């Protein structure tokens, strides 16, 4: 009953149908920006418009150039500004500027944002969110007006002709694009035509623990947030506290260009997200009927046409014609005389997420947080893990998921145009294969809250981008359909090390003292830098070294392994700055994944294969009798020797960000707080700059007296290379240090470095 009443209360706060949002009169906006250590802003205002104004102003002080460049992207003006062949500034999946411009102009031309803005809540935005967006835009523009383009502190865009005011339409476009990130926005080249991006994309990931009263030493709810998002560009987190006295008081990480906190806490609730395994889109195979039409239930339906014009840097125009269907855009790829394929994106018209995060930030307990999620149903591609002051922990895949039952997926399955696309491909020639409906879904075609995988516990829930199955091994989730992710499949090494870390802390066998989590042991666990694959294979590598001091490399040469073996056996398995052996292990382990011959699949080398009855202890062991294993080690040693690279190369020597050394290891090595550099080790013994990994880390303990929180923004607050806050927290991160959050008025006022600014507009 409490959940139902909370949902009704949320619904009553919505703007009634047809109620216009009145523009703020001149001089309406007032906000106070207080900056504490590391430049962290605490923004206070009397209303949502003023709060947005203060936030937009503060963000522009630190990161105006990033958003200014992204606005050029969202407007489809990169080809005119930077040339059509240059790469876009999309940090997740960059494409050439022409492909980017065609895609974003097609989105604008479709009118989707205009249609959603005309809807009442919860499908359309609430009055509060509209005020936040308008205020944010006004605050950004006010800072730009006060400072002037020629005087911007960031040399990246100082004096550039493409820097100018932004509009509310730009911010709504950014919110929509964020929600489409796991769908159409990530497949621009397939939709509009264009070359595929080179190399693997820096896929966002995350770790998250919500700890209940049975898992913590003092019985308090605790949370660990560790999102793995890009370190550059518009998908970085910005650390901020947003306060409207008596209405809202939330602190945490907010993605660039959004006026809400996505991962954070208030006085009584803390939450975080990880990227979900659930599907975000399906493909529909269209049976073509000639003359630009396709068949549905035996009747011809005409395709829609979009003629997109893109201005180029030389002053000319180029154009491209795109096609649409009842399901969504028709892919430029995979078309034949008989068939074409349409892309159905569950987030195609989703602007609900920002309202959901705003409502979550106001929740007083987990029931109210769930009510916020059930009301808006807008989280685009993430799981939610949360806890509250009562010491209850909860997990939910409350994300936007197309309603495709297992039966429908089997019955409607047709061949895919590209087997590498992890999506259902359904028969578009019959309406029987349309997405299903749930009565509790706010948008037709999506699963409603009653169908979502959920688990609430007094001990813990955890996720490291694994499917819901092993959220807590004591209570496996198994009743959800394929569209939510698989069950009884390899858990993979990063989720395994995460669950192992929790188990060792609860048993007190991790060397951190008595059983149960405290805030210091939560921090220590999160930054332990364990390399789980090395731990699993350490004894086998030692045996291999004893039995085979020399091995044959791929080129047929014999390689002496003894020094490499001494380095690996002496290493403690931690990817710290000074971890001698960490990089050698990575290169060896990478070699194990390579096929013996190009084009062939890699051969299994685990001694014990995965067993669904033992998901946390399999696979394990190294098949050291396999010649391919010895060859992989010989190849790694040979590459080091050929480049004159010491076998004792450390993460601090090989990994960097803005010239600073960075600790950590990679996803596939089984590292919890992982980093990614994108390309192989260079001949100079250095990887390219870190581009993805642990980003905004937050450890929270919710006590009756208020939250105790430690944070670290790994790449720091400002993208401006001349800012004092460009790498100050990065230095802390490299040393394994954290920032003590200032949340209460007394904590903020006590900062000797406090700077206070009042802004009006």
TrEMBL record:
One annotated GO biological process: antibiotic biosynthetic process
Domain of life: Bacteria
GO molecular function terms noted in the UniProt entry: hydrolase activity, acting on carbon-nitrogen (but not peptide) bonds, in linear amides
Residue segments, region Disordered: 603-625
Annotated InterPro entries: Ntn_hydrolases_N, Penicillin_amidase_A-knob, Penicillin_amidase_dom1, Penicillin_amidase_N_B-knob, S45
EC number: 3.5.1.97
Signal peptide (residue range): 1-19
Pfam families reported in the protein's UniProt record: Penicil_amidase
Family stated for the protein in its record: Belongs to the peptidase S45 family.
Name of the protein in question: Acyl-homoserine-lactone acylase
Species in which this protein is naturally found: Nonomuraea rubra
């Amino acid at each position: 009953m409490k959940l139902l009443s909370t949902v009704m209360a949320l619904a009553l706060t919505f703007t009634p149908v047809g109620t216009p949002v009145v523009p703020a009169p001149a001089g309406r906006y007032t906000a106070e920006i207080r900056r504490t250590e590391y430049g962290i802003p605490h923004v206070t205002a009397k209303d949502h418009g003023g709060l947005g104004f203060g936030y937009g102003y503060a963000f522009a002080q630190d990161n105006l150039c990033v958003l200014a460049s992204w606005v050029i992207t969202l407007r489809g003006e990169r080809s005119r500004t930077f040339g059509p062949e240059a790469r876009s500034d999309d940090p997740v999946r960059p494409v050439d500027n022409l492909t980017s411009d065609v895609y974003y102009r097609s989105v604008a031309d479709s009118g989707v944002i205009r249609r959603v803005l005309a809807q009442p809540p919860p499908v359309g935005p609430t009055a509060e969110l509209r005020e936040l967006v308008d205020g944010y835009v006004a605050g950004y523009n006010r800072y730009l007006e006060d400072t002037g383009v020629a005087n911007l502190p960031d040399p990246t865009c100082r004096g550039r002709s493409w820097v100018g005011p932004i509009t509310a339409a730009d911010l709504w476009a950014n919110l929509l694009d964020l929600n489409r990130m796991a769908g159409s926005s990530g497949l621009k080249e397939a939709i509009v035509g264009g070359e595929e991006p080179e190399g693997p994309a820096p896929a966002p990931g995350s770790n998250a623990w919500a700890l209940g009263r049975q898992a913590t030493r003092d019985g308090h709810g605790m949370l660990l947030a560790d999102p793995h998002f890009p370190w550059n560009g518009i998908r970085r987190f910005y650390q901020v506290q947003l306060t409207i006295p008596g209405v809202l008081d939330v602190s945490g990480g907010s993605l660039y260009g959004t006026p809400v906190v996505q991962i954070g806490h208030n006085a009584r609730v803390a939450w975080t997200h990880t990227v979900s395994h659930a599907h975000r889109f399906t493909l529909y195979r269209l049976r073509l009927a000639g003359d630009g039409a396709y068949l549905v239930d035996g009747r011809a339906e005409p395709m829609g046409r979009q003629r997109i014009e893109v201005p180029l840097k030389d002053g000319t125009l180029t154009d491209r014609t795109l096609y649409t269907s009842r399901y969504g855009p028709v892919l430029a790829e995979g078309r034949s005389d008989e068939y074409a394929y349409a892309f159905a994106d569950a987030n195609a018209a989703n602007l609900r997420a920002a309202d959901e995060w705003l409502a979550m930030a106001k929740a007083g307990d987990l029931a109210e947080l769930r009510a916020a999620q059930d009301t808006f149903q807008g989280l685009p591609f993430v799981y939610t893990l949360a806890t509250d002051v009562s010491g209850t922990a909860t997990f939910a895949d409350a994300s936007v998921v197309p309603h495709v039952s297992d039966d429908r997926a089997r019955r409607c399955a047709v061949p895919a145009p590209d087997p590498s696309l992890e999506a259902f491909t359904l028969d578009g020639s019959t309406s029987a294969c349309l997405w299903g409906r749930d009565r509790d879904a706010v948008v037709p075609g999506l699963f409603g809250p009653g169908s979502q995988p959920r688990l609430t516990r007094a001990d813990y829930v955890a996720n490291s981008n694994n499917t819901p199955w092993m959220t807590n091994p004591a209570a496996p989730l198994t009743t959800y359909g394929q569209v939510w992710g698989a069950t009884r499949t390899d858990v993979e090494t990063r989720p395994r090390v995460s669950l192992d870390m929790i188990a060792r802390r609860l048993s007190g066998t991790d060397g951190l003292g008595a059983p149960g989590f405290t805030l210091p042991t939560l921090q220590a666990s999160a930054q332990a830098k364990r390399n789980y694959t090395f731990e699993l294979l350490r004894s086998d590598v030692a045996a291999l070294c004893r039995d085979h001091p020399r091995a044959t490399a791929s080129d047929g040469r014999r390689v002496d392994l003894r020094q490499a073996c001494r380095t690996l056996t002496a290493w403690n398995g931690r990817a710290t700055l000074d971890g001698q052996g960490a990089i050698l292990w990575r290169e060896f382990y990478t070699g194990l994944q390579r096929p013996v011959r190009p084009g062939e699949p890699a051969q299994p080398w685990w001694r014990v294969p995965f067993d669904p009855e033992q998901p946390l202890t399999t696979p394990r062991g190294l098949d050291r009798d396999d010649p391919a294993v010895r060859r992989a080690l010989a190849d790694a040693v040979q590459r080091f020797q050929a480049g004159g690279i010491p076998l004792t190369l450390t993460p601090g020597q090989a990994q960097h960000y803005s010239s600073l050394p960075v600790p950590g290891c990679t996803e596939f090595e089984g590292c919890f707080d992982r980093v990614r550099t994108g390309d192989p080790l260079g001949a100079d013994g250095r990887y390219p700059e870190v581009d993805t990994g642990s980003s905004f880390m937050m450890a929270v303990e919710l006590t009756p007296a208020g939250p105790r929180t430690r944070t670290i923004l790994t790449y720091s607050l400002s993208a401006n290379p001349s800012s004092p806050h460009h790498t100050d927290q990065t230095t802390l991160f490299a040393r394994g240090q954290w920032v003590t959050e200032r949340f209460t008025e007394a904590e903020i006022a006590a900062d000797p470095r406090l700077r206070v600014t009042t802004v009006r507009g």
